[in-house]
Amino acid sequence: MVMQFPSLGSRRAIIDRRAISDSINALAQEHRGDPIKLRGLIVKELKAALEHGREDVARRLEAKPTRGREAVTAFAFLIDQILRLLYDATTHHLYPAGNRSTGERIVLIAVGGYGRGEMAPHSDVDIGFITPWKPTGWTEQIIESMLYSLWDLGLKVGHSSRSIDETMRMAKADLTVRTALLEARYVWGDRALYEEVAVRFDSEIMQGTARTFVTEKLEERDERHRRMGDSRYVVEPNVKEGKGGLRDLHTLFWIGKYVNRVKSVAELVDVGLLTQSELRQFQKAEDFLWAVRCHLHMITGRAEDRLTFDLQLETATRMHFTARAGRSGVERFMRYYFLNAKAVGDLTAVFLAHLDDQLAERGRRYIPSIFRRPKKLDGFVLDRGRLALPSDDFFQADPVRLVEIFAVADRHGLQIHPSAMRAASRDAGLITAKVRKDARANAAFMDVLTSPRDPETVLRWMNESTVFGRFIPDFRRVVAQMQFDMYHHYTVDEHTIRAVGLLARIEKGELATDHPLATELMGKILSRRVLYVAVLLHDIAKGRGGDHSILGAEVAEHLCPRLGLTAAETETVAWLVRYHLLMSATAFKRDLADYKTILDFVEVVQSPERLRLLLCLTVVDIRAVGPGVWNSWKRQLLGDLYDAAEEVLRLGHKQKGRSERVAAKQEALREALGMDEATFAAFSGRMPESYWIAEPDDILVHNARHILEAGDSSLSIAAQYYPQRGATLVTVYATDHPGLFYRIAGAIHLAGGNIIDARIHTTRDGVAIDNFLVQDPLGGAFHSPEQLARIKAAIEDSLSNRHRMITKLEARPLPRTRAEAFRIEPNVLIDNKASNRFTVIEVNARDRPALLFSLANALFQSKVTVHSAHVATYGERAVDTFYVTDLLGGKIESKARLQTLERRLLEAAGGEVGEALERA
Q1: CA 340 to CA 242: how far, in whole Å?
Q2: CA 777, 778, 782, 787: dihedral to nearest 10 degrees?
Q3: What is the distance between the alpha carbons of residues 26 and 31, in angstroms, rounded to a whole number?
Q4: In what helix (H) or strand (E) does residue 568 lie, and over which residues does it extend?
Q5: pLDDT at 715 over 70
Q6: Which DSSP string corresponds to 737-801?
Q7: Residue 238 has what DSSP assignment?
Q8: Residues 385/365, Cβ–Cβ less than 8 Å
Q9: What is the Cα–Cα distance from 108 to 189, expressed in whole angstroms?
Q10: What does the pLDDT average to over 194-198?
């Protein structure tokens, strides 16, 4: 009999089967005739052994925290021994059979991952009971008793009990069963029965069905990737099911086993599906991924396979990743994780190429028709429709071809043959400084980057072959560079490549409904290649310590001339990289109704072309951060800023446009309301000029109707869904008094809402008209009739009864959020130059429920009046900006007062004011 787990050392330290077997036999002697009591004692004995074994495996992992293979093998060995002991105890002591008939035979097999001899600490124990024919009374007793015992041991068991014929029928019909049986392994019981199953599985199921199995398995893999986010660079990856995870490696092994009947991964080399160095890569990646998965299970005490932010910190610490060279330990750990996931992707491509050559006869692949076949391939050849090398030393003869192959593939819309990709990975080191300066190579690279076809796909191939990072060493530094925050969903290289892809799609008009303005501007942009290079370089200096915008601009100044850009183009790219966050920061954190905001922005931008470029860069940068980050609210704000800035650039710094805009808005409103001029003049005269600038036309109509309906009432509240912004618009019309804003903010939080924007206006006769945009805490819609009624009632309560607010907030438990995995030092910036009329306060803090309420309360305590509030969230970080004055309407100039204000806001942002609430 072949020894299982040959590489596992000091097995007795994990579990001493002989000693436990002896003590079970002694218990059986003592309690003969009382099977119920005996089963309980056997379970108790095995439970103690299981706990001891688990502790030993945990110690091994702690001693060698990156050696996952050893831990999963040790754990599978432990479960094997527990099952064998339980099987023997059940068949010999609990239900001994006298003369068993041939039908009363049973074999216990391990299937799935456990069958492979690999088991994470909290994975399911997948087993199968197989009998020759239909189960007899005795075999049913054995199976039932064993399952109850396993459940009593606290194990999660995935089980099946079938006859041999039934097993074959199920394997034919169901891919999952077939895959599980492919890895079936004998654990204990009737050996001859197991051999029979193995022989029949081989002859009846596997014979002649390899091609179908491969197709189905690859379809299943693609479907799984789609479910998991279809990128191996998601910042909270699933170690088991995600792209580049363990399941991808297992799929390779299953396919190899099915097609070539190999027994172990090492045998894939003998059949030519992997080379020796690829095998080492496979084993290294598998070892690391298993280690991560084991740590996840140990930390959480359950089968947790998602590497979430809080678990990344803990796992990195356990695996001894420490801070180095401007990167924290957790960022270094995640970078290593992504490099392993990338290795899995590369292996998959190479493996499937070999397999394709093995399975398909020549000419089986799709070949471009004779008319479409490209005439000029720059020396490259076609191999069954894919771009390949005429000889293995083709790159060595002229390393510039390492870049040219991608340009040729893009130009003719061809796939690159995996053997050529493998050669490119192997020879990427030939890209020296001389190749980087070569005009041909740089022209080829620019052709790919600015391709009107599909630059994203080709750049991704380039990145996976490592040619990208070799050709642009600055890019190599951000490959697999993750950003430890909740805002960015992808690593820097993946984010950048996605951004280039989005730009190409916007240019083609494919995203016109989502991005009408950017689509229109792409047609007007004069310097197209400047924009593509700026998108490529905007985050190139991430992870270097220091401001990545400034450092990135320096990289651009150095790199652009090499790529063939003129001095003027280089200057524009460097400017775009330097200011790539300016437009979003202005739109989301500043009051666009304040004319000074626009003038300050225009002073930096200076030209209509730069404004167009900056808008397009900002849109693709935000959109490529990840799903759900772009929304109609951001589109509206960026569009408003673009329009206002474009008008100033066109007309010069005159305020002429402003008064004309106000007059136009008033006229449009008068027509919408159908009022005569005298009545309307009385109404519009109550409103300050800033109100007309700040609010869009539809909200002006909504507010006007609300005010007219309210008449002389001292409080009127309206709440309705506002689809343009994907949020609920809550309007409060009430007699103005200090503290109004913070009371409304508290009430909205109490009703379960989250304020994303607030515009606060006071009419010339002292009545407040405040517009709030509200979503639920997860950014979803907040507009069911009960929710709207709840929000109105909460605001009414809060404004009419002044004392119950704090008590109510104390009673409301604050939900724990994922943001708590991050430490963010609160920061308060007070700026008296950003506006002519207001003091602008910007607060950066960790996002949490009721943050806006805490800050508004601090402002109320400091006796300042809030005129507008702007809320922006970037994952776990919240940036709340307030435009304030003192109670008399002037800027806050006194130094002492500014210091007090800053201190109060820091306390509120840090949670000290909220701590009384947190403790409640």
Answers
A1: 13
A2: -50
A3: 9
A4: helix 567-578
A5: yes
A6: -TTHHHHHHHHHHHTT-EEEEEEEEE-TTSEEEEEEEEE-TTS-----HHHHHHHHHHHHHHHH-
A7: B
A8: yes
A9: 6
A10: 92
Question: Do 133 and 163 form a contact (C-beta atoms < 8 A)?
Answer: yes
Q: What DSSP letter does each residue of 275-316 carry, written as one string?
A: -HHHHHHHHHHHHHHHHHHHHHHHHHTS---B--HHHHHHHH
Q: How far is the C-alpha of 255 from the C-alpha of 272, rounded, in Å?
A: 13
C-alpha torsion angle, residues 285, 287, 288, 294 (rounded to 10): 140
Write down how long the chain is: 920
Q: Which of residues 364 and 254 earns the better pLDDT score? A: 254
> How far apart (Å, rounded) are the C-alpha atoms in residues 572 and 359?
52
CA distance 650 to 642: 12
Q: Tens of pLDDT along 244-282?
A: 889 888 888 888 888 888 888 888 888 888 888 889 989
pTM above 0.85, yes or no: no
Mean pLDDT of 655-668: 79
> CA-to-CA distance for 184 and 123, rounded, in angstroms?
17
Task: Give the pLDDT confidence score for residue 366 in this predicted structure.
Answer: 40
Instruction: Please tell me whether residue 723 adopts helix, strand or coil conformation.
Output: helix
* Stretch 523-545: mean pLDDT: 92
Supply the pLDDT for residue 2. Answer: 43
How far apart (Å, rounded) are the C-alpha atoms in residues 584 and 563?
A: 28
- Bridge partners (DSSP) listed for residue 759: 771, 868
- State the average pLDDT for the chain: 86
**What DSSP letter does each residue of 176-205 carry, written as one string?**
HHHHHHHT-EEEEE-HHHHHHHHHHIIIII
What is the token pair recorded at 651? Answer: 């007309």
No. of H helices and E strands in the chain? 42, 15
Say how far residue 591 (Cα) sits from the centre of its chain: 31
Positive or negative, the CA dihedral 790, 793, 799, 801 is: negative
| DSSP state letters, 473-514 | HHHHTTTT---SSSS--B-HHHHHHHHHHHHHHHHTTTTTTT
132-146, 549-563, 672-686, 760-774 — most confident range? 549-563
Q: Confidence band (pLDDT; 50, 70, 90) for 762?
A: confident
Burial class (CB in 10 A: 0-12, 13-18, 19+), 124: middle
